[in-house]
Amino acid sequence: MISVDLALQLKAAGLEWHPAAGDRFVIPGRDMDEDVFTLSDMTVEVHDHPTGRVIGFNGTTEWALDSVDQPEACWLPAEHQLRELLGERFTRLERRDVGDGVVHRVLLLDEHGADAFEAADPADAYARALLHHLSGARGGSAGTSGSRTAAT
């Protein structure tokens, strides 16, 4: 699962969320950043109202949160959702052993050339690639540890 910080960056870059059952999200700025919620047909549902979408918490009598406006929530897209959002630009995911750890590299290819995005977790690598795409940036990309990685 990607970090809340990376999810907030994706949201700020314009990533749209169309809530669906199984989606995970947080409610930042309410001292609840560590609490990850999952949309479910039974306990957490999306309700469409004339004023906008509301995420309703059903059966949560133990704490005082009945609902939250969708824009207040921050989606934590799953690895498969991030890959789908990259669309045809996604070329492949590579795994490399580096010292005592592992690095995952997402390779993208489009009309501007190829880019590579690295992270220890594959979901983070996909998220970094999507963030790069949403920003409209061209050319190389930042990998792990501030390294610059560009495949051409």
Structure in a nutshell:
This protein is of the alpha+beta class and 152 residues long. It has helices spanning 4-12, 79-86, 122-135; strands at 24-26, 37-38, 44-49, 52-57, 67-69, 74-76, 90-98, 101-110, 113-119, 141-142, 148-149.
Show the helix and strand layout:
Elements: H1 4-12, E1 24-26, E2 37-38, E3 44-49, E4 52-57, E5 67-69, E6 74-76, H2 79-86, E7 90-98, E8 101-110, E9 113-119, H3 122-135, E10 141-142, E11 148-149
Antiparallel strand pairs: 1-2, 1-6, 3-4, 4-5, 7-8, 8-9, 10-11
Helix pairs in contact: 1-3, 2-3
Question: Describe it for me?
Answer:
The protein is an alpha+beta fold. Helix content is 20%, strand content 35%. The chain has 3 helices and 11 strands, in the order αββββββαβββαββ. The protein has helices at residues 4-12, 79-86, 122-135; strands at 24-26, 37-38, 44-49, 52-57, 67-69, 74-76, 90-98, 101-110, 113-119, 141-142, 148-149. The strands form 4 sheets. The chain has a 3-stranded antiparallel β-sheet. Strands 3-4-5 form a 3-stranded antiparallel β-sheet, with no helix packed on it. It is elongated and about 45 Å long.
